[in-house]
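job 3f2a | input accepted
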Amino acid sequence: MSKTFTLESTFINLRPDDSARALKIGPRFWATIGKRADLGDGRLMGVTSR
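job 3f2a | predicted structure (50 res):
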């Protein structure tokens, strides 16, 4: 069974191979995003407060 999550605290990484992966959002998520080779050519989906 899949774990549930909310898009307020989790982004979804839509990968080029048509798979998807949940990514926890923490205080350093955006500060380190440029160093994340695991995101590759995928897309991020989520919600923001603005």
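job 3f2a | The longest strand covers residues 10-14.
job 3f2a | closed
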